[in-house]
Amino acid sequence: GERELPTTPERFRAAALMKMAKDKGYRECVTNQLQLWLSVDCDVLYSLEDLFLLPQDFQALVVNTNLEVQGGAIPLEQVDIGGMVDQYILAISQKQTDSGREFFLPLGELELETLCRVYGFRLQVVKTEALDIITEAARKSRKVSDEDTLLAKQALSLAVEAVRDAGLTASEVSELLQTVLLYVGNIVDSPNDPKFRSIRAANPGFTKRVASRKGGLELLLACGFVRE
């Protein structure tokens, strides 16, 4: 039968991360996340909160590798992504220290989704702040009133659920949602910059991560983007 779960939070975290480190779906999701971080402009990278919650040595690794890729020093295909995945898992596994206080980093959306799958329970893990970002971007993009914000959030929540129920793999869903969050997060951060308010449909990254995924274009339309 199944072994009993560890009896303390620290032991459970360690056991869960060991399981996740061996889980193919989880490693694919982390791979997609890292590839996305390495493929965006550095100014976009600096706006990603999830990256800068990680230990500083891993942040430096991602930023330096991003600069090498964006500067043409190394093609993305030649980056040791598998090694970076291992370092990412190690980074979130280690106990951190700040001002003499020891603590663990909070587990992110990828980790929560994997825990649900590995341990066989269901949990809604679309982070509230992620929906808030999308809603605010949609509100600014479409210039709707503040009173419509709650309705917009509800509509976006339904759109996200539709994506999750579209038969995509966990890796595909994660990559799609992260990419859309990048698009709308840029609008929130720079609402007057026109370059963030349109997406080139022929862009290979957009095609691979969004347009080719069932529900991807519908999610963008729910965010306030329009077809031209």
Question: What attributes characterize this protein structure?
Answer:
about 230 residues; mainly alpha; two-stranded antiparallel sheet; 11 helices; globular
Draw up the topology in text:
Elements: H1 9-21, H2 24-39, H3 42-45, H4 56-70, H5 81-93, E1 96-98, E2 101-103, H6 109-119, H7 128-142, H8 149-164, H9 170-189, H10 204-211, H11 216-222
Antiparallel strand pairs: 1-2
Helix pairs in contact: 1-6, 2-4, 2-5, 2-9, 7-8, 7-9, 8-11
User: Which oligomeric form is depicted?
Assistant: single chain
How would you write the strand order of the largest sheet? 1-2
User: Structural class per helix/strand content?
Assistant: mainly alpha
CA distance, first residue to last residue:
57 Å
Coarse morphology: globular
Give me the strand/helix succession. HHHHHEEHHHHHH
> How many H/I helices?
11
Radius of gyration: 18 Å
Mean pLDDT: 77
Count of extended strands: 2
Sheet with the most strands?
A: 2 strands, antiparallel
Percent strand: under 5%
Low-confidence runs of at least 5 consecutive residues: 124-129
The helix fraction, in percent, is: 55-70%
